[in-house]
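Last lecture ended with a question: if I hand you only a sequence, what can you say about the shape of the protein? Today we answer it with a concrete record. The protein is Antitoxin ParD1/3/4. Below, first the input exactly as provided, then the predicted structure, then a couple of comments.
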Amino acid sequence: MSRLTISMPDQMNDWVEAQVSAGRYGNVSEYFRDLVRRDQERREAAFDDLRNMLERAEAGGVSTRGLSDIMAAAREEARQKGLLRGED
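The predicted structure:
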């Protein structure tokens, strides 16, 4: 097993120590292993989502709409989702 030495601000160290003291983790190493595991899972899920999105897009074929129609539809969808306001 590899060893790793890290530096962090006191506030972050206090947080990690509090997680261990609260019994959420057996020691500091378990806490950091859990963080790395969660980051790996999150990244794998993001890649899976992207891969699925690309597969759906490819299966959808080529659109007959023009770029201006596609952009207008995207803006409208963004407005409906509250991502855009007004004439953005």
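Comments.
1. Residues 10-63 form one domain.
2. Residues 36 and 42 are 10 Å apart (CA to CA).
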